[in-house]
Description:
about 280 residues, alpha+beta, 2 domains, nine-stranded mixed β-sheet
Amino acid sequence: MGVVLGLVLILSLAWYTVVQGRTSWILLQTYLGVSKRRPTDVSHLSPTPPPQAKKTIATLETLGFHRLGEAEVPLPHVRTGPYWILVNSDNSIQAEAVHGRVAFSTFFDDKVLVVTDYPNGEHLQTPTYESRTITTSIKDALDYHKLQVDKFRARYGSPQSISDMVDYVRWEVIGRVNYGRLKLRRLLLVSIARLIMFTYGAAICVVSALVWASNLESMLADSIQREMGSLFILRAGGLTFLLGLVFELLFWWVSKGSRRDSRRIAQGPMQAKGRGHP
């Protein structure tokens, strides 16, 4: 029975390790390639928004936004679809809508950018970049964004105008180059944690397989050897799954941070150094 349990545990551990490795590789590629990914204008295809995105677009229209176009951004090993870009009446605020999520952005020059996300995002601030999250409503997110834009306007002058999709793609690329990795640093932390878990799991799989193979004959013939070998594999595998559970809780905690409202963070905005925009 111990032999069967050991074999099942090794196979399960191998499967879990492969999943962790693939996920960490995708996340790491997403982070490292953010500044190189260029949005593609797909407005000529006139994609039909799904129900949730349609509702989001309707809300934005009631707030004074109008359609600019649609775009797609390729992601590594992930099938992506279009998202919808709208702008306000003076073309100073762009809104990117996908499903129920909205990102408001205002550019002042090549290095100065204000972003407000709904309902999840980041809480980042440098002298020339701010990324906040409002969780209550799209209108609240827009109102908050306007307040931040007014503060930046006092320091940097009038924002840039996004009048067509050419303007959108140009400024989106600039934002990605300057602030993409900074915006996605939470993704980097998760990818590193999963990579550590993959490395540890792979090492345990290799060691367990070697112990199993080198002692298989004696394990089959000797009950004591069989129990000792199975006990080693069970302990090593159990520890790996326990660490996996701890890491999954860590991933949950990290992702939960992106759902906090910037207005409710008692200690104020998180200061950040570096470069990067999603």
